Give the backbone structure.
Amino acid sequence: MKRLRIVALPLVVLLLVASDLGGQLPGDQMATQSLRAYWHVFTAYAIAIVMVLGWVVSIARRLARIEAQLGQ
């Protein structure tokens, strides 16, 4: 019985989410909307991605320097 609950719960959630998708805007109204108001969101994501990439490069450089010191 417990296994049935574990399997049934995700199915119920999936059905509820799928039934809610019918409330989206029709295609003609969707085409008239613009993403111009969200430029700050795109900019924030771009800044966050650049910062994470810079952090990864920084870690890689530090790790390479430590490996070089240990190799001597």
Notes: Residues 31 and 56 are 39 Å apart (CA to CA). The mean pLDDT is 77.
